[in-house]
Amino acid sequence: MPAVVIVGAQWGDEGKGKATDLLGSRVDHVVKFNGGNNAGHTVVIGDEKYALHLLPSGILSPGCTPVIGNGVVVDLSVLFEEIDGLEARGIDTSKLLISANAHVIADYNRTLDKVAERFLGSRKIGTTGRGIGPTYADKMNRLGIRVQDLFDEKILRQKVEGALELKNQILTKVYNRRAVDVEEIVEELTSYTDRLRPMVADTALVLHEALDRGETVLLEAGQATLLDVDHGTYPFVTSSSATTGGACTGSGIAPTDITRVIGIVKAYATRVGEGPFPTELGEGNDPDGDGERLRANGGEFGTTTGRPRRCGWYDAPIARYAARINGVTDFVLTKLDVLTGWDRIPVCVAYEVDGERVEEMPMTQTDFHHAKPIYEYFDGWHEDISHCRELGDLPQTAQDYVQALESMSGSRISAIGVGPDREQTIVVHDLL
Ligand code: GDP
Ligand code: IMO
Ligand code: MG
Predict the structure, then answer these.
(1) CATH of the domain at 182
(2) Backbone Cα Rg of the chain
(3) Which residue segment(s) compose the domain that 275 sits in?
């Protein structure tokens, strides 16, 4: 009867997809509970590589029921494109369930996402342009379109009319764009109704019944703690709750059902889009080209937008923060293999903010913008570690690095990634 949560402990792209896939064969349901097709999870199984955006990574595990929870925003064209793409590769997607309460990304929200970013200019967030922010804003404004609305055309038309009354004013008068026609939107959305109908369910009830039967439910976050709308580096965040609290609101599972919280954390750090990133190796502070080397070794280019990811060293205060916010019981440390080949590896252990040493994530965004990393240095290793399957197989310096991160990150490290493949994982403590 356990519900287990997987969350990102940094700024996303930590390897949540791989971790979810690793556990997929041992769980009964995998639930995506937040975000939409702003996420990009790459899963490698043998010679096959899958890039998932909207579908939960559990879709690749045959025995498991993938669920899109009520907290997700669904772009229906992307949904069916992704389903068709997987089916063409022999993946059975017929078990997929979608919450009747999930919100739908309408075309005007994709447009508004892009024009708002352009309007912000240098203050832009660097969104993925998928309409995520405007769709969540509509949900909170009570102007949103839900999956269930597609089954009642009269209601759907009323809701689209209501939303467009305001949006067309904004589109035409603020952004100088053409007004959107109600019928165009209704037609597009209803074109999916028949295909969608068999997948739609009261997913909260389905999940509760599964837990009552003693089955295991895995709740898979998109994005990450530092991108969470409440706990992240606001306003440079996504618009959903990507932390453990969001796993409850975004699925209908109760906090008391959660027995384990697995934080996924990279052995270094990356970020896509704008916003503060204290350990970033960027122009002016990276004389040895370490940022470029991390990007090249780690293949750090966005799965969704292809943008180069900003790269930097491991930030322990961030990991501790994520451990606290999420109640992390176990960390999975990913991409340790990417650090192979450095003589010494810096780790941020605290910050200097306006001349003072600060041990934890600063309270204000202004201080976080001013935070300069204070580094400790650890000996590196040069051996190929991608074949290691036990902790003892790692070179001593790599073991020391892992142990040092564990001691400063607020929870135990229960698994270590040494390559993108499912198999390239060292399991120290069982995750389920
Ligand atoms: P997610 O968004 O958290 O699921 O992460 P992404 O899939 O966007 O980015 C993680 C990338 O790292 C993917 O390309 C994975 O295949 C890859 N990856 C995951 N774990 C490891 C690992 O331990 N080592 C290496 N080298 N690559 C990994
Ligand atoms: P996964 O699940 C990394 C970032 C965007 C932007 C900000 C807001 O693969 O870890 P949005 O389109 O969500 O309004 O953009 O959030 N962002 C991600 N960065 N990984 C992700 O997902 C992300 N999803 C959104 O780059 O800075
Ligand atoms: Mg990703």
Answers:
(1) 1.10.300.10
(2) 22
(3) 265-427
Does residue 432 sit within a domain?
Answer: no
Band of the pLDDT at 175, cuts 50, 70, 90? Answer: very high
- Domain end, chosen from 244, 262, 280, is at 262
Q: Which residue has the tokens 């322990």?
A: 316
Q: Is residue 164 part of a domain?
A: yes
- The answer to whether residue 29 is catalytic is no
Omega prior to 235 cis, within 30 of 0: yes
- Band of pLDDT at residue 306, cut at 50, 70 and 90: confident
Give the Å distances, CA to CA, from 224 to 6, 12, 311, 331. 10, 5, 16, 14
Q: What are the pLDDT digits (tens) for 410-426?
A: 999 999 999 999 999 99
- How many angstroms does the Cα of residue 362 sit away from the middle of ligand 2? 22
Alpha-carbon distance values, 349 to 101, 315, 318 (Å): 42, 7, 10
Asked about 41 being catalytic, the answer comes back as: yes
15 lines ligand 1 (CB under 6 A): yes
The last residue of a domain, from among 262, 279, 294: 262
Element (DSSP H or E) covering residue 154: helix 153-169
Q: Are residues 107 and 225 in the same domain?
A: no
User: How many structural domains compose the chain?
Assistant: 3
275 lines ligand 1 (CB under 6 A): no
pLDDT tens-digit series, residues 224-269: 999 999 999 999 999 999 999 999 999 999 999 999 999 999 999 9
Asked if residue 273 and residue 369 are part of one domain, the reply reads: yes
Q: Is the pLDDT of residue 63 over 90?
A: yes
Q: For residues 403 and 341, state if they share a domain.
A: yes
Q: What is this structure's pTM? A: 0.97
Q: Answer whether 23 contacts ligand 1 (Cβ < 6 A).
A: no
